[in-house]
Write a structure and sequence with these properties.
With about 230 residues, this protein is an alpha+beta fold. It is about 40% helix and about 10% strand. Strands 5-4-3-6-7 form a 5-stranded mixed β-sheet. A hairpin with a 3-residue loop joins strand 6 and strand 7.
């Protein structure tokens, strides 16, 4: 006899997301010589970071993993705490309930459901952009405003949507005639949107976008991702 890897039996596709969460938690945090089915209810946040990073790189098939600032954003999200420092989070532990039972404040989904949506979108539509480090992705709307508020008109960056599962949005600076700046967020693009027209081509279409943060002309940053425009005849 030999113990198998964890298996979850589901009866409907809508259970797929929760099943993946169960398998991920079990694979990452169970002891090799455990009693069958016994797995920790809480794990150190640092261990969770390693797990999310390995999962992200394996799913997306990229060598570019998550960065320290990404972990900070994810910690703020899962713990619902925007006052703690990066060091504070390192000593915390995260529970299964926080990972995939409790609904995120003001949302209709759990942390894992949101993260899995990001995984799926990146794998299907954004792999090359992520691998070229053109997407910051894991960053809060508030921090984006702080970063962009002093930048020139037309500076933009890409972040994963907070309010929708599997969406990427473009935040960009608009400067008024009086010199005051405003950061606008474009309606998030889903995998379906990006299958119709790619992210690179959408960025090329939007004339108000000029430089990718901090200061890279958009054609230089995204030029290799533009598709050749077909003529009407084609």
């Amino acid at each position: 006899q030999v113990l198998s890897l964890p298996i979850v039996v589901i009866v409907h596709g809508n259970q797929d997301n929760n099943a993946k969460a169960t398998v991920l938690w079990d694979n990452a945090f169970s002891e090799i010589d455990r009693v069958p089915f016994v797995v920790a209810e809480r794990v150190p946040w640092e261990k969770m970071c390693d797990t999310l990073n390995l999962k992200f790189m394996a799913e997306v098939q990229t060598t570019k993993g998550l960065l320290k600032e990404h972990y900070f954003f994810l910690a703020q999200k899962i713990f619902n705490d925007h006052s703690a420092s990066l060091e504070d989070f390192q000593s915390r532990s995260v529970s299964w309930a926080q990972f995939n039972k409790e609904i995120l404040p003001g949302r209709g989904f759990t942390f894992w459901q949101w993260f899995d949506g990001v995984l799926d979108l990146t794998k299907r539509c954004l792999k090359s952009y992520w691998s070229d480090r053109l997407i910051i992705g894991f960053i809060s709307k508030q921090y984006v405003c702080k970063l962009l508020s002093t930048e020139p008109d037309g500076t933009f960056l890409l972040r994963f949507s907070d309010s929708e599962i599997g969406g990427v949005t473009i935040a960009h600076v608009i400067r008024g005639k009086d010199g005051s700046s405003q950061v606008e967020n474009i309606q998030p693009f889903s995998a379906k949107d990006l299958s119709i027209r790619s992210l690179g081509d959408r960025i090329r279409d939007l004339g108000q976008l000029r430089n990718l943060y901090p200061n890279i002309p958009k054609d230089q940053a995204f030029g290799s991702h533009y598709n050749k425009e077909q003529t009407g005849k084609d």
